[in-house]
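Just curious. Protein, please.
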Amino acid sequence: MLIQHAAFLGFSGILIILPLALIAAMFAFEIVMIISAWQNPYISSNTRLLWVIGMLFVHPLVAIAYYFTDYKKTQ
């Protein structure tokens, strides 16, 4: 009985840690994209402001869109 309980706790720990790790990775990605958008000299100030505001309110979807559209222009 004790072994089954310990195995269940191990599996549930993975179910808790994995989503938290994904959330932390998405948050870090978004912070990097916000900083990049703010410092990107290849886009206009209005576009820069719209990207940053979008990333702050819509979160990962706008950060992913920025990555594939304007972030690649800096590389």
